[in-house]
Structures are given as C-alpha cells and as structure tokens.
Known about the structure:
The complex is a heterodimer. Chain A is of the alpha+beta class. Chain A has three domains: 7-57, Uridine Diphospho-n-acetylenolpyruvylglucosamine Reductase, domain 2 (2-Layer Sandwich); 64-174, 2-Layer Sandwich (Uridine Diphospho-n-acetylenolpyruvylglucosamine Reductase, domain 3); 180-285, CO dehydrogenase flavoprotein, C-terminal domain (Enolase-like, domain 1, 2-Layer Sandwich), CATH 3.30.390.50. Chain A has ten helices and 14 strands. In chain A, the strands form four sheets. A five-stranded antiparallel beta sheet of chain A has the order 4-5-10-6-7. Chain A has a four-stranded antiparallel beta sheet with strand order 11-12-13-14, with helices on both faces. Chain A has a three-stranded parallel beta sheet with strand order 1-3-2, with helices on one face. In chain A, a hairpin with a 2-residue loop joins β8 and β9. The model of chain A has no long low-confidence stretch (mean pLDDT 95). Chain B has three domains: 29-37 and 483-630, Aldehyde oxidase/xanthine dehydrogenase, molybdopterin binding domain (Aldehyde Oxidoreductase, domain 4); 43-149 and 210-301, Aldehyde Oxidoreductase, domain 3, CATH 3.90.1170; 403-479 and 638-787, 2-Layer Sandwich (Aldehyde Oxidoreductase, domain 4), CATH 3.30.365.10. In chain B, 27% of the residues lie in helices and 26% in strands. In chain B, the strands form eight sheets. A seven-stranded mixed beta sheet of chain B has the order 3-7-1-14-11-12-13, with helices on both faces. Chain B has a six-stranded mixed beta sheet with strand order 9-17-16-15-10-31. The longest helix of chain B has 28 residues, at 550-577. Chain A binds chain B through residues 1-5, 40, 44-45, 187, 189-194, 196, 249, 252, 261-264, 266-267, 270-271, 273-274, and chain B through 133-134, 137-138, 141, 294-296, 653-656, 694, 696, 698, 700, 706, 709, 711, 714, 716-717, 719-720, 776-778, 781-782, 785, 792.
Amino acid sequence: MKAPPFTLHRPATVDEAAGLLAALADEGALVLAGGQSLVPMMALRLAYPPDLIDINGIAGLDRIELSGDHLAIGALARHHDFRRSVVPGPFGALLARISHEIAHYPIRTRGTFCGSLAHADPASEWCLTAATLGAEMVLRSQAGERAVPVADWFEGAMATVREPEELLVEVRLSRPAEGSAWGFYEFNRRAGDFAIGAALAGYRLEGGAMRDVHVGIGAIEEVPRRLGEVEAALEGQPPGPEAFRTAARIAAGAVEPLEDFATPADYRRDLAVTAIERALAEAALAQPGQRGMAA
Amino acid sequence: MNEAPRQGSSARPGAGERLFGRAVPRLEDTPLLTGRGRFVDDVQLPGLLAVAFVRSPFAHARIRAVDCTDARAMPGVAAILTADDLSPLLTSDVVAGAMPSAAIRHEVYRPVLARDEVAYAGEAVALVVAATRHEAEDAAEAVAVEYEPLFAVADGPSALEPGAPAVHMRLPDNLLATFDFHYGEVDAAFAAAAHVVRADFDLHRGGGHSMEGRGVVAAPDPVEDRLRVWSSTQTPHALKAALCTMLGRGDDDISVSVPDLGGGFGPKLVTYPEEIAVTAVAAHLGRPLKWIEDRQEHFLVSTQERDQHWRMEMALEADGRIAGIRGALTYDIGAYTARGLNVPYASGMMLTLPYNVPSYRLDIAVALTNKAPATPVRGAGQPQATFVMERLLDLAAAELGLDRAEIRDRNLVRAEQMPCRKPLKLRGGTDVVLDSGDYPATQRAALAQAGWAGFAARKAAAREEGRSIGLGLANYVEGTGRGPYETVTVRVTRQGRVRVSTGATAMGQGLQTAMMQIVADHLGADPANIDIHLGDTAEPYGFGGFNSRQTVVAGASADAAARAVRHKVLSVAAHKLGVEAHALDIAGDLVVETGGGNRSLTLAEVAVAAQGIAGFRLPGIDTPGLQATERVVIDDMAYANGCAVAEVEVDRATGGVRVTRLAFAHDCGVMVNPAMVEGQLMGGIALGLGNALFERMAYDEAGQPLTTTYADYLLVTSAEMPEVAVSHTESPTHLNALGVKGVGESGVIPMAAAIASAIDDALDDLGVRVLRAPVSPQEVRAAIRAAEGGAR
C-alpha cells in the first residue's frame, strides 16, 4: 500500500495551476486538494497519477462568502469549516448539520467541499446538498472560466463534465428561500460510514400550505437529484405525517436504485421513501418559530 | 521481548501483602500509551532491505510463466525470487500445517510460493527484495506473471456439489474431510419426541483485524552462522520449529523473538509462508530483510474463520427437556489447511456443552474453496455452536409456549452435576469434563441484571410509542487453558531483581501483569522489582497465545516456579541468619524476620550467596542459584461459562438494529486481575457485536474478495458499543493450583446468539427469525417486508 512514484507540483496561483493542468492533464495529472479519496486510491494503486498538482498553497481558495443569492465556496474550504454556521441563520445551521454527517473528524479537517463535488461519489452529502439547493460549479482552465449548473454537472457515479485540464475553483451554492425550513436524513451502518441512502428536504409555509418544496435524494441512485414528482405532490399541501408519507411513497416508483453485493435495489427503494419522510418530518420541526434550520 | 517497565514503588510492600486477585494497573499500559512500545516494524538494522510479494489477482489460475526481467532492472531491486528460485533453499516447498487428522482426505498444505497454480486471490507467486518498500512494490507490479484463469469455487456448499470445478487442479474433488460427533440413541429420540424444531443457519465470521498486521524481520548473523528472527506471531515456538525444519537448521541455530504485539485474535497463531520465505531469502542473501504486512494483504491472505452452514433439528420431551440434537455442518476452510480441522471440531464439540443433551449426532463436511485459508479467530468455532444451540432453544421455547429463560433452566447442567463428564472427546482424545460452575445461577444473575422479568411491560410501552425493542439471551461454555504446558523460568538475579521468562506470548491481554501478580505472591509483592520477559524461544519448549490458555497454563508454571524459588530464597536466608525458614518472609527486595526479630537480608545478598563460593558448601540449598524452571502439565481443559442478555431496538423502516444494553454474567474461576478480566470481556463483546451485526468478509462468485478496506468491512467502534453491566462469579477449578480459567474468548461467544434472539423478540408480532450472523439492516428489512407480505 505504497503509492506509485509521482511528481508533486505546488503552484502558488490559480493561473499557475491552470498552466500545469494544461501541460500535464493529458498524461493523467490530478489535482490534490484534501486528498481524502485520492490519496487512499493511490496507496491502493487504483490511481496512478504521474503528476499531482497540489493546490493547498494557493492563497484565497479557502474562502466561504455569501454573495447575493449564493454562497461562494472556494476549492480549499474544508468540510470542517462548516461545523459552525458560516453564514448567520438557518442556512449556516443546515450546512453545519450536514457537515457533521460527513465521514470522521480527521477526514473532515482535510477533505474539501469542492473536492466532494469534483469526486462525485453518489453517497456524498455535499453533492446531495448542491443538487437539492441548486449550485453552479466554476471551472478554470487556460482557456478561461465557465460555470456549470448542477443539473448538468454529474455524468454518473464518480463522473462529471469537468475536463481534465479544468480546475474546480469554486462552487456557488444557492441560498434557500426566505422562510424555508429544512430537514436531512441519512442512513448508514455505523456513524461516519458512506450513506446507503439520504434525503434533504425543505419548504416554506404560506397560509398553511407548503411552497417552494425541495426534495433531493443521495446515495440511492448514481447521481443525487431532486425528485420532481414528490415535490409536486407536496406543493400546496398542508404539511403533516400523512402528506409526507403519501408523497414519499411516490419515490419508490420514481427511483432507479444502485445495487451492490450488500444492498439490493429493493432496499434502497424502500430507504428512499423512509429518508424522504424523515427529512420532511425534520423540516416540519424546524419551521420558523421552532428551534431548527428554518431560513 | 517484552520487558516490564521499571516503575517507582512508593513504599516497600509489607510481608504477606498480595497483588494476586487485585485490579492492579497493567504494567503494559504506560509504555504502550506513551509510544514506548516496540513492534516488529520498529526493528531497525544496518543494511535492512524491504520485501514485497507478487500476489495473484485471480482466485484460481494456472501459472504459465513468470518473467522478472523488467522488474529486476527496476531502481533499488536487490533480488526477485520465484518458487523455482526458492525451492533449493528449503527442505520443503509447502508449510506443513499443525494438527494432523485421520479425517483429512487431501494433503493441501500452503506452498511457500505458488509454482504452477494459484488457488486463492492474494496467494504469493514471487518475492521482491529492494532498498525500500516503495521500490519493492513498484518492482512487484512489474513482475509479469502469465496466468490462465480457471473456474473458481467460492462457497462451501457449491464446492461439494457434483460437477463443481476443482479447487486444485490435481484433486478429484473438494471434500477435504468428513467426520462426526455421535452419542446416544439420537434417531430413537427423534422418533419418540413430543416436539421437533428445525432450522438452517448461515454463520459467517471474518478475520482477525489486529491493529498491527503481521510482519517479520530476519537477520543472518555471519559470525555465528545463526539466524535471528522477530515476528509478529502468537506462537514463536511453532515458527522456530517450522523454520529449523524448512531451512534445515539445528534447534539452536535460529532464535525467534516476539516484540510487542498489536493484537493477534487468532490469525497470528499459524506459521505463514511469508515468514518462511523471508527468513530463507535473508539467509540466502546474507542480508537482514523486513516484510510488514499491509492492510490489503491482511484482508487478502491473513487467515479468516469463514462460513458455516448448519441444517439442524432438536427433539424435545413434552416438558421442554431436550431429547436429542442432530444435523449436519458444512464448513468452508478455504484453499489450504493451515490448522487442520480444529474450527469445525470445536463447533461440533462445544454445541451441547452447557446443557444436558442425552443424544447427539452431527455430520461435518469440510469443503475446500478458492479463498484464503481459514483458521480460528477469537472464539474458534464456539460462537457458531452457541448460536445454533441457543437459537434452537428459542425455537423450541416458541413451539412449546415456554419462556426462553425457563426452557434453558430446565436443560442447563446443574451445579450438583459437577464435575460433569460429557460423552465427548477433546481433539487430543481427552474426555470432556465440565469441571465447575453453577450455570443456572449464572443465567439468573444475567436475567436479574437485564430486568428480564419486567421487560414485557417496557416492550409494550415502547410499542405504543412506535418503537420496537427486544430482549434476547444466550448461555455459553468456553473451553479454556488448552494444555499440555507452558514453560516458565523464575530467577532472582544477583542484583536482587526477580526475572520471569517464558515463551508464553502477550498480544495485548495483560499477560505481563498477570504473570507479575502470580509471581509477586511468592517473591516480595513489589511490581517494581519484577521483570517479565515473554515470547522468546531461548526456552526450547513452549507454545504461545491461543485458546484462552496462557494465564491458566503459564500461570500454573509461574506459580510453581516462583514457589520453588521462594523456598530456595528462604532456605539460603535462614542458613545465613541462623533461623528457621518459616520464621522468614519476603517483602519487596528484602527477606525479613516475621517472628519478632528485625534482621533482614536483601534479595541481592541472598542471590550472591546462593551462587556459591569456590571451595565452600552451598548455603542451605542443594543446587546453586535462585532459579527454577517449571512446566506444569495440564491435560484437561477448564470450562468457563456465562450468560449474555442483549437489549436491542429495531428500526422497522430501515432494518437498522441498535444494541442498547447488555448484561453479561460470567464465571472464569479465580480472577488474577478483575480489571483485566473486564477488559478481555469488553474486547470480546465488541468482536461478538461485530459478528452479530457488522463484520462480513465478502467474496463474489469468482472468489474475488469484495470487502478489502475498512469502508466495506465494518468493525465495531466505540459508537456502536452499548452500555455493558458485568457480573462476576468465581468458581475455582481444581485443575490448577490457582483455580483460574481462561476468559480471552468469553465475550465473543454468546453475543450473536443473544442479539439474534433480541431481534426476534423485537419483531415477535411478525414472526421474524434471525438464523444468520452477521445480519445486516438490508437482511432485517427484507425479513420484515416478507413478513408483512411485501407491503409497506
């Protein structure tokens, strides 16, 4: 479990990193940010990058800033940086809540938000967050900069539209609607394990009816996504266990679950329903006036 | 070698003071917790080279060719050896396993390196020596092995089906062995039974997963033409014997030392091909070599305990007494035998022990498969036997409408039956005789602690809140203290220190502390004056750590040796002081008068006197020196017993099971150190919890391992551990002078059975039966869905 030989590059600026990527990406160069997935894969000799472009020395990439309708999250913002609210109010509380579900403490102190989006593990909490709240991925290369909406970002499990020579410099995470409240549920075998299924759900109340309903699932399918059918069933309804259960059940027919040796598709189909129901229940507890993650 | 740290003692202990039986702090903890442990990877020698192995990516393949040309030219490479290169250095190409058995039909010993065929994924094909481990791994990847993949067999039952692919090309079939346990008129018992319950069980156990993997350093000594070997092994004597035999060396040409061990848990008890290969190549090259198993190798090639499939039935009288048990067990032993048939033997032998079972027949078939060899992991077949027995009793209780505790109480061996001879033999042919204990009382203690009687009300109240809680129980008997002996030498040095040396091997249990407490009883009761040296083969006769044995067998020898040395100390001191020996005692490093006098001698003075003076008679002794070596022989095993009651909460929507509370009542005889006993129990319980709910070493149908990282192979962490209430009872065994029994494996044994029973209880309205271990949330959920008719 020793990594194969590689050359480590330590650019000081984004331009320098983009230059290195332009020169070396074709040979298999990879970007090293938190390294919590990449480095073990190298130790297992599942990844053989001849060059690693370590962006940890680039100043300013660790920024997390509210900017208009979104939160700008730089490529070096660590999971752990979200452990306390990065923005006042429920949005920050929601991100803090989710950050604690990610892996284990030492991993959270190194792994990055943008790295999770670039790695695109189906079980990633941040990928689910981006897919549900809405986000734009900002990519830099020598050719310039482009922004990709989250709906176009994922190509499959561990696959995105990022080109090898592009650096994901920032994720712009959409700010939830004023007055909305959110709930999150994830099921795993042990604390800190990869989720087997997860859901993030939120809505705001208008005259006793749910509006701006967002329901996203992660770890169920190859790619996290919002479930429009479930959202539509809730939109305009009064919240409550019956409404949540009825809408959540729609997910069973709407998802194409992942399967692996330990988890049959039927299990994840069930779990999608349970996770959505529980995320909605948590959101209901968090409505303004209650303690919790209401925006 | 382990050396006890010098700890400053605040005051010299008084005469007659005892450390035995007290929860004294472990001698091991301070060095291990402050980074002063010395493990095999800490052995550094001038000119040390690193070893990596080329391992098969296929579960079964013919090796057509091995080309090392490119790899030999890689940076840092010193040598690359294939099976053909290694063969001239060894007297045998295979590592003969311990534990021969007449039941074994095929000789399938592990090759040191595979030559023509690989029979499991990870099997070593070549050995690479390079300046660093990085370079060795780079070169290992560059060795070009031409494989012709063959059909693989990945589970026991399919290995035994007609027409199954052969696990080894040269063998006609995959049936390694059949044997049985049989006593009483079992078929007649079934014919006459008032009730019969039946079930099939799928029981899996994973690997050892010690924090420190295996590793070996071998250093030739050109001056004396000897080999010095350090290995992370539980059995240094077995390793030394194998090395001497396979390298064609004399008994005194090789020494094996065990540094601090970062856990063993069973898999380190067998001698491995890597230890032979590394030592042989070190001797051949004349260079010290180090191989440290990495975690991938641990998953792939360290032995595991594997799968047992049971088809069982139990016959009962109308009042719930057991009339007979019969059935069949298929065991998947992997591609080679490394420890004979001892896991299925232990399972079959232990099944009935806690209970009065008038008739019994178990037919055992051992199947070869294309997987890593299987050998004992902590518990060694006993948890599976307990699972089967206890689950059959739960089924019987349901069938008869009896409380699960009541049916056990009607069948448990009772205190007045002790010693209770069972119509069964240990693997060495000795009778199984339960020596002591009050099994029904132990069960009552666990039930009381768990609140068994009042649980129905709590369960009903939880059900009202939509929560499913359940309680389950399991009794066990553990065979401990496997003989025949362990050697212990006790000596008082001329500096007045007490030195204890033995080949018994510590792997984290606190053996140093236990030995110290036993010896201290006779030699001054001062931990700071006692040095313990473990795991060394300077003493030629010994075994090592397995089978919850060392405190029993090494403890008995330590007790006898310390007693003998004490006798000599007092004899010499009495001679010098001109008093009777019985008027003296040892307190710390002084021999003191007890009958009113206040004269004393230091142990150093006594030791110097005891070595003798040229031309003078020895002072009050017949043989010189304050030293004694003892090998107390104990053939019978001492049987510890206990009862676990587990409380669980089941999340019906996800199938998630959380063990919320645990009551554990047990009896391991006299306790040398109650805190260490509890430590052993807690570690065992954690492993048992893993066996119940988490740990699965999965393979696909082609024999490819699927769970080779700790993201996929789930070990229990502190977050999963419930609150545990332990209650101790001490029924001394008559089998050794100290009255001690082993406890190292006890915690593991009843856990999966108790948890399965509790899950059934939590889901009793659905009639779910957990007949497998581990059971995953996915499987629990599937059972719930099936019981609910597939509807949500």
